[in-house]
Fold:
Amino acid sequence: MARIKKKGQAGQAKNFITRTQAVRKLQISLPDFRRLCIFKGIYPREPRNKKKAAKGSTPSTTFYYTRDIQYLLHEPLLRKFREHKALGKKISKALGRGEVKDAARLEKTQTPRMTLDHIIKERYPTFVDALRDLDDALSMLFLFANLPSTATVPPKTIALCQRLCLEFEHYLITTHALRKSFLSIKGIYYQATIQGQDILWLVPYKFVQRVTGDVDFRIMGTFVEFYTTLLGFVNFRLYNSIGLIYPPRFDAESDERGGELSAFTLEGRGLEEPQKAIEDVPMTNGTSNDTATSTTAQDLADNLAALPAPEDAEGADDTTTIPNQADDPTTEAIDTFEPTADDADILLNPSSTPPQKPPPSSPTRPSGSPAKHPARPSTWDPVLGDGSFTADESDPSITHQIVDRPPLSQSGVPEAAPQPETTEAEGGDALKSRTLPPGHRVPGRIYVQPQWVWDCVNQGRLLRPDLYAPGATLPPHLSPWVKAGKGVYDPAKPLEEQEEEDEAEAAAEDDEEEEGADDGAVEEEGEESEEEETAPRERVENPLLNRPEEVEAGEGMDVAAAEATDEEDEEEEDKEEEEWGGLDDDEPAADDLDEAEAERLRHQRELEAEAAGVPLAAIANSSTPKSKAAEARQKADRRRKEQDEELERGMMMMSRKKRKLFEKMRYGNEKKEDEAKRLRAKRRKLEKGKSGGVTA
Amino acid sequence: MSQLNGSRKRKLVTRAIPDAQDDNDELGDALLGGILSQSDDEEELGDSDLEDEDGEEEDEESGDGLDDEDELESDEIPSEYGEEDIREQIRNLKTADVDGPNGANGGLTKVSGAELPETTTEPLEEANTEDDTEDLKPNYRVTTDANGNPRYLYREIEPAYDSDDSDAPATTNTIGDIPLSFYDSYPHIGYDINGKKIMRPAKGEALDALLDSIEIPQGWTGLTDPTTGKPLELSREELEVLKKLTRNEVPEEGYDPYPDMVEHFTSKTEIMPLSAAPEPKRRFVPSKHEAKRVMKIVRAIKEGRIKPYRPPEETEDEDPEVKRYDLWADEAPRPDHVMHVPAPKLPPPAHDESYHPPPEYLPDKAERAAWENTDEEDRDKEYLSRDHDALRKVPGYDKFVKEKFERCLDLYLAPRVRRSKLNIDPESLLPKLPSPDELRPFPTACSVVFRGHEGRVRSLAIDPSGEYLATGGDDGTIRLWQLRTGRRTWSVKLAGDEAVNVVRWRPGTEAFVLAAAAGENIFLVSPPRRKTRCRAKLSRRAGRWMGLRSHQRSLRNERASEEGSRCQMDPPRLPARRKGRPHQNNRALNRQSNQLAPPRRVLLNRIPQGQSSAIAIHTLSKHLTQLPFRRLKGLAQSAQFHPSKPIFFVATQRTIRSYDLARQELLKILQPGAKWISSFDVHPGGDNLIVGSYDRRLLWHDLDLSTRPYKTLRYHKKAIRAVRFHQGGLPLFADASDDGSLQIFHGKVVGDLMENATIVPLKVLRGHQVKKELGVLDVDWHPRQPWCVSAGADGTCRLWQ
Structure:
């Protein structure tokens, strides 16, 4: 006889361990355990059978893999944690004795130094793995780079985050890795492709972040600690892969002046120093299809980067200049505290600019001013920070000027002479800081709103700047990540292309009926008609309801025919039916009658035509276009019904499991389609309102 | 002091009697010696006596000297004078005590009567120790011996002094360990050793109480000495001892817990050394061993093995945050662990997140209100789309930090489960079915509606010729309709308010007979053809067989029964009819065998009451009723004849049994697996069976294949009420359900045993309305055409063509 298996000795009971058990096993405190889990990337699991995993008890608990916890047992950090705890005790003891000096010495000399390097290597055995996981890291670090320093967020951390983010941006600028960007209400999304990996992150707008009380910065701090280490190594590797020295030289003075990105100076490696063999060949974790996709993605990215930059195509002067705030030299105070912060953010944000810059190797670069900043030939108002290659706003090499200001009417602006003071004050300098009077337009220069840049980048071509002129109503800004697919609404395409065959007609008919019902009442606004949306549908189906009665004895035929010919009657009828339509709810039966009924009607009409001596075609022609539309709709209805029937038949024969799966999938698809339909309906209404407004 | 004295006095008084006795004896001894030896004492005694009585001025010496005599006298007093005198004396004593300081010695010496012998000696001791000069009374006499030399004659030592039992109470009560309260009613409180009564000491009377209230004597405890019955009072010494005990001090007088240390070994250097040995050499010569050790260290330092301590330098020049090496210098791909679930990435933003979205993405009022009213947790989007016409107008996103924080929480707190997402076209899951167009003809649409029944139509049947439709409903009528036109040709109300459960036509075209079950009866009706001519034969109550028999006879005599009187009665064309018994809703009229030339009409009848009679087979031609089962397991639901063989099927709640009628044995038990079978039908070929159940299943059984269903279809939303095969050669069958729909199936049975039946759903026919949870109650096929009729709970029947 086989040995009797004991319960709780194998399987799920063994594989899972609750959090309390784990903490007890590791002999650390819960916060330490949390830190360790964050560092090591260990997360709870959902056992298939909770009851078995919890050995019979059913209170809801968090489960970890026993293997994971065992793996944590060997973590060197665990020893550091313990040392830290011991040190804390020593220090508190010393402080309790009043030996402050002792405590300080202990803290200074004995604080265990923790590095997460080995964990990074462990979690990301290859560089590509690290890149793949960079999304959250970048979002987090960019957020922390923009946070004000508080007790919970030390300035050191913020400085570190800022440095790492700027370094990363520098890399992006140098390699043109940025692919897409999107201005959302949350912040600015960027997507870069590095070694075939798409990295998407979100950068907040430069405002003071609102911090609610339920945010625990200790947890976020732990994440930031890990992410800074990760991004540090990633930056090192990235810089080395393109032959730059890491860390780049940092100019504290320039940073003080708000230079941000330009506070860093990138240095290439000398020729004598052979490039270290950091190949760009992405190494992946063996999944072959993964490599395939990544290489193709990289190819694509490279192609994109190799495209001639729009500015090159433009010809005359290939310096792309993104100066902002051209307009307001006199009101510098406004510049600083007005909502221009937005603009400053955008324009100073380096990663937004690279895609529309020519590659640094472009031969047609003017050798003059932008020589020092080959990577970023853009300029801005000196108020907004250091690093602009020219302070002269009237520099003729500027081709585009981004303005995000309401246009000033020329009459409202006093004819102001150019500002002599400022010019003279910095006159000695090679870079003259000259600003133009507000509302002044340099001839030959293109003035656009910032969205133009984003739309150009996302669409990969130069758009008409006049659509984006200052003060113009901007075209909608669309997310570059929404892929057009079946049943997905695409706002860029015209409505007709996306509509289902009879959707417009149905909507039109609905509207007409609505109008008829309302007797030309005032057109309602969105939500009201939204509410009524269901009503017309009922109305459509209602006419079929009373047919059976007519069929019953055979005499009903005449009535039906009369109804069909007399449309007004029908409409009245409709209204009536709408009232009593709620009484019986299973009208589908009527659908089936419908066809037979139609057949009869036609027959009847033929008879009538014969009796009247009029050819049938005439009658058919005499039917109004409206009825034609209705016909089309009916046809579509019929087709849809057939499809439904077919589907029903198929589902009848499916096993229950399959049917459930099918229904689940269909539910998902239908939800998507409903959403698209809703959007289409809204757009239709808007368009109609617009055209109606135009005609009116 | 004075109080002590007072107490002493009182005690003395109480001990008067025994003391007196003792004193008598002792006196003899003591006085003998005393008289003989101490003449001086005698004199003194006399003096002190006088003094005592006069002024009570007891100075030390007199007190000392007097004690024994004083006692003696006072002891004797109570025995002689009684209580009054004693009291007086006490009062005197007390006043005296208050006035003058009394000798401590007196107090000490006269603690109690028990110490009497001791006290007598005390003066002597004291005289020896303390009052050397004054009271040096020699305890010897100097005489001259025979030789004329002085001879010292010493006093005899009284043994009572040093005797050990001096502590023992001298005179005690001999009553033993019994409470004194036993003597409450007696004047005495016990007996002394001599058997004399110990009289009760004087108790405090009113005056006494007054005195006590005025001043509580020192040492007063309020307790009574259980042995003597006197109030227990403590002396000053005793109090002192108690006090010390309570203070955790040594009770002994004069004990010094911290005596001065006696220095045995002093720190003073002796003038003379203990040893006169010269200083050893090693005190002057450097140690070789030490030199060796030092040299070793020096060598180690020179060689760098030992580093002298240097305070740790702050090496802050290198920022640990700046990574200066390539972590992935020797990267080696490592396949991901199977159980590792990477964190899912956040989805990219959609159009509605844009700062300037297309207008159709902006929420209208209703959507905005809905979004605002939902709980923050339940919102499907955490933001509402907003439109800003310029980038400068975009405000900061106030939930940014919160969102990132939640992402962090998700990353480390949320359990991850790998969920495979099927990314296939759902259409591919659909089975490939032949197009219904290929399988025509089958009914597709309702062509005729038969209206007229009030209440539900329970059952219907198309007559074998296919011209008429008979229906029976809750209103108790049978109606006959022209099938093509829907015109009602005939109607009869059968039995009062009882519903007609089943109507069935006689198979074959030669006779036009309808059987209907209503209430507990089966009616056989011969409805008129084209004319309004009706023949009805009514069955009787089946409660009594005998009665039935007789009733049959009466029927044969073409007599109308009382029910039959309602319709015009014609002589029956058929030789016989009916068998009746309570029946509910189902019954089949069938031809048992085709071979039999005069077709035997057989009614199969399901009877709910009584298991033995659950099924009855009525042979119409013979007027016979058979009850085939002695006992039927389970509740009979429905019964059917095999189309060609003498087999019949009975459906109970869960199983279907087939019985051979000829051999009278059970052939097969089918287990459809349904919870409650509602109806079933046998394929005209006889080898297949469809079963409908109240738990929404439609099951196809192949009798040759297995006892389990070959195919289970479960698509109706409500119970299936009826199933029916097309009997006219078309491969069709239909079911009727409570959800108001009928389903038409193509069910082709091939003669080949190797091939399974093909079942294809063709059409769902909807038209009946659901009334009170009931939809379509019955369905029947046209005998030849692909038409079917259905009976609905809404009171209509429909012909589907």
About this structure: The first helix of chain B runs from residue 2 to 14. Chain B touches chain A through 103 residues (CB under 8 Å).
